Amino acid sequence: MSQSWNRVFMSAVAAASVPLLASVIAPVAAAAETGVTTSASSGGTAPLAPDHPAQWALLDQQCSKCHNSVDWAGGVAFDTLDPANIPADAEVWEKAIRKLRGRMMPPPGEPQPDQQTVDAFVSYMEGVLDRAAAENPSPGNVGLHRLNRTEYAREIERLLGLHVDVTTLLPKDVSSDGFDNIAAVLRISPAFVDQYISAARTVSRMAIGRATAKSSSVEYRANGADQFRHIDGLPLGTRGGILVEHYFPADGEYEFDIRDFFFMGAGYVNRVDHPHKVIMTIDDVRVFEETVGGPEDLKAVDQRQAAAADELQARFNDIRVRIKAGMHKVGIAFVQRSLAQSDSPLQPIAVLPEMERFPTIPGVHISGPFNVTGVSETESRRRIFICRPTKPEEELPCARRILGELAQAAFRRPITEADLGAPLSFYKMGREAGDFETGIESGLTAILSSTKFLFRTQPTPLQNVADGAIVPISDLELASRLSFFLWSEGPDRELIELAAAGRLNDPEVLDAQVHRLFTDPRSDSLVTNFAFQWLNVNKIATSQPDPVLYPDFDPDLREGFREEIRLFLDHVLRGNQSVLELLRSDQTFLNERLALHYGVPNVRGAQFRPVRLTDPNRRGLLGKGAILMGTSYGNRTSPVLRGAWILENITGTPPSAPPPGVEQFPESEPGKKPTTVRERLEQHRTQPSCNGCHGVIDPLGFALENFDVVGAWREKDRDAGTPIDSSGQLAGGRHVSGPVQLSEALLARPDQFVQALTEKLMVFALGRALRAQDMPTVRGIVRQAANEDYRFEAIIRGIVRSQAFRSRELSSAPVPESRQAALTGQERSR
Q: CA 96, CA 112: separation in Å to the nearest integer?
């Protein structure tokens, strides 16, 4: 069957591409009949002569020394550009504007124009480009857009109420321009086809379940959280343990093995000198408890060693529990016996973990089912089986109804008879091989393997439309684009019905739907998907602080960093506050572990709660441990990484990649007096070729030097023992010292930060890189949002109203290269 599936899948991919190609090569229709507008060529644009010669003279005074037709510094020669037709070279001028906004040009060390002169020139150039864009719009185009792993998982949950681990089902997505939902890189190759079909089979089988399910086994390992404290989700009064969600395919018995409590080595068995009670729960109901340790067990292992240890372990092996089919929470923990802390922190760390006196639960092994009795009604089965045939002649009509409902939800639009062809064919094949449910499983597999599900939308076929034409996307395409933007999943029934009725393009209806989707809990993806990628929050998952230098760092702190920034971003963004609060808010969210790390008193317990910060250094994003640890190395801070992060994500002026052959960052030499990171960077910056970028990057990072690798505040450098110097001069000439003054400097130009955020959000919304032609739209959104104090919903509304979001340009113009590489290799210093 695998080969037939592959043929069906690849044929569907080819068929999906035909309408788009046809729409591009078809001839032009009359504008009065189609409502299509066509962009004017540059030759038809009236010359836009500079009306401010003094501002134009800035180029001659400050830029032409290097950027000329002889030197071609940076690949730019201003003397080759036509001042009478600025829009013809929009890409060059937008890059120049970005450099000037970030005060990256002229480079540090060269004579600098004053801020008023720069602002006047930037304002003039942006005005010319914005007027030209209004006269000749270019909304761009997004091709076939495959679901990425996050969207696939959320779609399965939307359709079937089933949580799946996509990391085991689908290949890893490639990121571009900072996001993993860029259509240009979300391609399907023949090598991926089998994985998508296999994923569809697995999901279909999980959704329906099988009374004939074969026994299998899965092992879960604890995530390394502190097992001397209570873990959220486990019963109160317990400590440590593990909590997992496991899919049970059928009603029956399942076997649990809780392994490796003890450590046995060099003839000793440890962790049994005190009694410890272990409990196991299924959906918070206790199903097992057993005690280990204490005088009798200690005596046994003392006298019989390995044999006694095996007997102790046997108490926690082969635990049989009868469980109904579906997804269930499995929890295993110790009953809290004492608040006494471990002895381990008294000694550096992870050197002799076998000497720990308190047992932990490293994981659980689950196998089954055994003695199957059937399949219970699960959430996914309730959604699928909307009818039940009672006699053979009712089976096909019922199957048509079931598969029709599933297909309409999966394809995100009303379906046609042709849409049901493949699912019904596979239903019949499955029904011949098994029973009615087997047929439905096969039909569901066909739906989840279809390109109509795997691609967000398939553009409506167009006729008599030429290359370069601008056409509105259909209401159904708009519904999908809107829901994937705000929810990272497909549209719900209300949105599909409005789109099918042709009402979604009505401005009032569209604004109302933007507000409804934004205030829906599913918009949490704007935090965990958009904002986490924008700010590179997931970097903390791979950051590994040196355990000798930072012995107090533990997995609970890592998870605390992530939860703090998630709650903070949710509070500001989904709370529809001004996005400037991201840089200045004095509210954060802490639990006891994180509060102790930050030095915030009077916070007790593992639960996170809102806290008003009295220390201004901790306010906003720049005081968050997730950002500070993610922009450090494991053994030292990195002003370069932190400065580059600010330029890329906060000011929207990313630095250029370092030139080939740049020397590595100098480390302290053994046997010599240690020097601070700042002193080594200043030595590195003595070369003009290095200072051109580092003169902009480093002062931003220096302002955060009081925060160490794990985001703790410090007054002295660890290596040199000298006081931290967090002072510096920014590229615009402003002197700052410390995170408070840095935040003030960034907030002094609020539109700069809002524009950077809007650019990132627009990339995420469109699923493509932005071009020079998109920048006038971005600036217009920022100007409109200023009337509402830069509230997040105002920015979202501006993007959704934009022509780039609601239309497409039938053009074969290449997509610009990603700017993401600009950060790569900023500091070569490991």
A: 15
CA distances from 701 to 289, 537, 629, 678, 739 (A): 53, 18, 13, 10, 9
Determine the angle formed by the axes of helices 792-801 and 775-786, rounding to 10 degrees.
Answer: 140
Sign of the torsion formed by the C-alpha atoms of 567, 573, 576 and 577 = positive
Query: Taking Cα atoms as reference points, which of 164, 47, 61, 169 lies closest to residue 117?
Result: 61
Asked if 337 contacts 231 with a C-beta cutoff of 8 angstroms, the reply is no
795/801 Cα distance (integer angstroms): 10
**Of 625, 781, 787, the residue nearest 712 (C-alpha):** 625
In Å, what is the CA distance from 157 to each residue of 150, 202, 242?
11, 14, 24
- Rounded to whole angstroms, what are the CA distances from 50 to 54, 105, 127, 311? 10, 21, 11, 89
Q: Say if residues 830 and 633 touch (Cβ distance below 8 Å).
A: yes
Q: Model confidence over 548-573: pLDDT tens digits? A: 899 889 888 999 999 999 999 999 99
State both tokens at 339.
């608040």
Residues in the chain, pLDDT under 70: 1-55, 224-226, 261-268, 338-357, 458-465, 660-669, 684, 686-689, 692, 811-830
Amino acid at 332: I
Tokens of 156: 């399965």
* Phi, psi of 716, rounded to the nearest 5 degrees: -125, 150
Cβ contact 250:377 at 8 Å = no
Residue 800 backbone zone (phi > 0: left; psi -120 to 50: alpha; other: beta): alpha
Question: Strand pairing of 469-472 and 276-282?
Answer: unpaired
Secondary structure (DSSP) of 368-434: EEEEEEE----HHHHHH-S---SSGGGHHHHHHHHHHHHHHHHHTS---HHHHHHHHHHHHHHHHHS
Q: Are 242 and 259 in contact (CB under 8 A)?
A: no
Listed in sequence order, the residues at least 6 apart from 804 whose beta carbon sits closer than 8 Å to its beta carbon are 139, 140, 762, 766, 774, 777
Look at the alpha carbons of 359, 361, 366, 370 in this order and tell me if their dihedral is positive or negative.
positive
pLDDT reported for residue 276? 87
C-alpha 667/C-alpha 674 separation (Å) is 9
CA distance 95 to 82: 16
Contacting residues for 114 by C-beta, under 8 A, at least 6 apart: none
CA distance 526 to 570: 8
Q: What pLDDT is recorded for position 115?
A: 85
Give the CA count within 13 Å in the CB-facing half-sphere of 766.
32
Q: Are 278 and 258 in contact (CB under 8 A)?
A: yes
> 257: exposed, middle or buried (C-beta count within 10 Å: 0-12, 13-18, 19+)?
middle
Q: Cα separation of 43 and 35, whole Å?
A: 24
CA distance 718 to 592: 26
247 close to 260: Cβ distance less than 8 angstroms: no
Q: Which residue has the tokens 């919903």?
A: 793
Q: Judge whether 535 and 562 are in contact, CB under 8 Å.
A: no
Q: What is the DSSP letter of 86?
A: G
Rounded CA gap, 689 and 773, in Å?
32
| Bond before 369 cis per omega within 30 degrees | yes
DSSP H or E stretch at residue 808: strand 807-809
Tell me: the pLDDT tens digits for 625-662?
A: 999 999 999 999 999 999 999 999 999 998 877 776 66
Question: What strand order describes the sheet that includes 807-809?
Answer: 37-38, 469-472, 807-809
Can you tell me the distance from the alpha carbon of 57 to that of 64, in angstroms, rounded to the nearest whole number?
10
Residue ranges of alpha helices (H) inside 102-225 are 115-135, 149-160, 190-208
CA atoms within 13 A on the CB side of 38: 17
